[in-house]
Amino acid sequence: MRPGRWLPLLAFAALVALLSAGVWLSGRGDRDALPSPLIGKAAPAWSLPLLHEPDRRLSSEDLRGAPYVLNVWGSWCPECRTEHPVLTRFAETKRVRVVGYDWKDERADALRWLEQFGNPYWAVVADIEGRTAIDWGVYGAPETFLVDGNGIVRWKHVGPMDDDDIERGLLPALESLERPR
């Protein structure tokens, strides 16, 4: 048997090993290991229709003056369902406005999802085409941002939040906004 016949198989095995190592390492690391370039910078300006009242719009300018949490979700997103009870408990504290950002979703599906699982949001905006999400650097749903009253992004979480993410990430970031500077 010629040695050259094994070369494609060895190359494939090496590629599989490399990809497996990447998946394994990404699953055990910090989700904030790849920080958002928006942290410490002005949040993208946006104006989107409200999910429940599509003839009305909500904009980043409307939210100036007080911090808000922007939670990117979609009815099609299984991890959003996992995160939803955690986000609901946090929103019920009324510590900060939680704005839902329904991303690449059909309006009827999103409304049905909120009816089924509850609506913890202060307001819900809809980005059916996903254009505004590009400005935010959204990789996928769910993603969550904390924006201060001056419109500066202070914190970002990629993936579904759990209680630990709230306690160790979002709350300290929110408390840092509440401290006098």
Automatic annotation (TrEMBL):
Belongs to the thioredoxin family. DsbE subfamily. InterPro entries: Periplasmic_diS_OxRdtase_DsbE, Redoxin, Thioredoxin-like_sf, Thioredoxin_domain, Thioredoxin_ResA/DsbE_sf. Pfam families: Redoxin (PF08534). Residues 37-176 form the Thioredoxin domain. It is a single-pass membrane protein. CDD domains: TlpA_like_DsbE (cd03010). It is found in: Cell inner membrane. It comes from the Bacteria. Keywords: Cytochrome c-type biogenesis, Disulfide bond, Redox-active center. This is DsbE family thiol:disulfide interchange protein. Coiled coil: none annotated.
